[in-house]
What we know:
Layout: H1 8-30, H2 36-39, H3 53-61, E1 73-78, H4 85-96, E2 108-116, E3 126-133, E4 136-144, E5 150-152
Amino acid sequence: MFIYTLKATNIKFFAALVLSAAVLIxxxxxxxxxxxxxxxAATSANYSGIKxxxxxxxxxxxxxxxxxxxxxxxxxxxxxxxxxxxxxxxxDIQRSQGLNLRKYRGKTATRYTYRITNYEKYDGTVLASxxxxxxxxxxxxxCGVDNNGFVHGFSKDxx
Length: 159
């Protein structure tokens, strides 16, 4: 038979160690996912209170875009609960501008698409998409839709 005794100080030490590990694991699973792109997204854009057509147009004007006042498309979109590689890359664009679609998984939002009339770096058609959920912009992008297309966040410098 084998007997091992522990002093109260040893028990306290192991209890503190186990408790610390449990707290660390809990904190790691509860804290939302952040990376340098999220913190780099220092923007003065106000994504809330977008209720009207004028609000959406003014939002885009805040980034220097002039758009046709009538959207070329208004469509309900469902944010998937699981992101594939395309949605993951799209969400990376959103996170670079201070947004995160992961918060809205499984929700239905409305996408408004406008034609930009003053995009200078591209000779083709350029569109602005804004995705809104409960009067708040939760995602959006600027994209060129012709042969050598592109996609980036709202900022004209490509972020």
